# Entry
Amino acid sequence: MIGYVLRRVGGAVLVLFGLTTLLYALFYLAPSDPAVLTCGKGCTPERLADVRHAMGVDDPIPVQYAHFLRGLVAGRDYPSSPTPRHCPAPCLGYSFETNQPVAALLADRLPVSASLALGAEVLSLLAGVGAGLLSGSRRFRWIDGLVNGLVLTGYAVPVFLVGLLLLLLFCVVLQWLPFPSYVPLTTNPLLWAQNLLLPWVALAVIQTAAYARLTRAGIQETLAEDHIRTARAYGLPERRIILRRALRGALLPLVTLTAIDLAGIMTSAVLTETMFGLPGVGQLLVGAVNQIDLPVVVGVTLLTGLLIVLANAAADLLYAAIDPRVQLR
# Structure
């Protein structure tokens, strides 16, 4: 087990190193001048010279990349007048539009996106696994057809339409909930959950459909295996067979999908954050693109890659906990 964990952690580190190299090459070694892009609209020659000197783009390429990597682990200083700009580790860059380190901007927005992602993921798993379990264990019955119909509807309805309908119904017509505005969990947990309930539901619709379909397929496949027939021959209760044997085998592909979805939601739920007025990472990325704030775009992209790599590494470790046979590979 220890060797399995070390291999997965080592692989994640190598992937992260390759990711940082690729991102640096794409954004900073492109034919266009990164200093011009970072300086933004209405940039004066004096400010452009200051940004170019601060970014160090006049240094040789190996030196620039070494400074970039060193900033990730030890921080760096961006020389500028009258005082240097300090970017503490992990330094993902410095936004000259807002005069703040990119990591500080992400730290302000990440709790919002994390709250949205975790809540939506919990709802999706509870509803999706429950529906898939109910459908897969009752194949070709009326409940199976009902769940399949709901799954197809969930796939077909876009998230912005679900969000608009929820806002119209619960905030305008019924007036059961206020229009969402983010409240930190530490300030008021009840208001935190109340304001995020509608975004959670809107974002969970498509994920619930995906989880239900995947769970249904896994349950049906596992119920056809020999060890299930053996358990039935020994007279074990059907509920115990489904919950302890069939469901455990069906969880393996679900772990990977959940890990990728959770990492992706935290940085890509742009429509949901915009529709419900949530100041998350998605809105930060949209604003950075509109303002051509290159360091912020690079920082968000690097954060997305980091979350996906960590989520996949966590999924690999969960495989070993769910299926002991994984430890041998």
Remarks:
- The mean pLDDT is 82.
